[in-house]
Amino acid sequence: MGVTDFEFPILQHFFCVLEKRTGIPAQPLTPMAEEQLRAKQQRLEEQDGQKAPLPKGVVLGPDGKPCRSCTSFASMRAMARSPSSPQQQQQQQQQPPTSTPVAPSTTSLPDQPPPDCPPDVDQLGRSTWTFLHTLTATYPVQPSPAHQQETRQFISLFSKLYPCWVCADDFRAWMREDGNAPRVSNRDEFGRWMCEAHNAVNVKLGKERFDCGRWQERWRTGWRDGRCDP
Fold this sequence. Notes:
Elements: H1 9-22, H2 31-47, H3 73-81, H4 86-94, H5 121-137, H6 145-161, H7 165-176, H8 187-204, H9 215-221
Protein name: Sulfhydryl oxidase
InterPro entries: ALR/ERV, ERV/ALR_sulphydryl_oxid_sf, ERV/ALR_sulphydryl_oxidase
Region (Disordered): 35-63, 77-124
């Protein structure tokens, strides 16, 4: 069956009009012409809203664009290098045609962005946990009621303003579970609570749990073997 018969009504109408005016019967498209027409239709459909699936690990922000602070640098790079990405399509259009196949690059690429670039989700997470654990390490041994209230308010605001929105949603969901509300009555309680929050994330990422009984050695006093001493 020719592609003009049923799949493309506009072409069918065109050939009918042509046949009436010229007396020449409509001829089916050649296989090559059919393939070109199908490819053009597919491109038009993609432009109408059909998007290629995102690479694994890429998270979109509220604006519908990839969220750098929610996605690892490696995943962002994989998306930029995928054949369907706008960057790759633009590069292919700018490159002159060649009959020589280009061998894939074997150069090892870094998994983290350079230090003077915006952080990815991994860098942001490590820096944030360092800040939060240090916050608990300098927390008063016996904080005043006002200090405790301010700390709860800070944690609440932090869980809403954290740049990685999926991480923030997950943190708020964890705090709503039984026994996970912020415990800020004293330094040790606050430090252990923060350690438990960190462990909850580690478990989801497939990492080992940290012994929360040693949180002060890790974040306040230093290890007992003296390796942290100046």
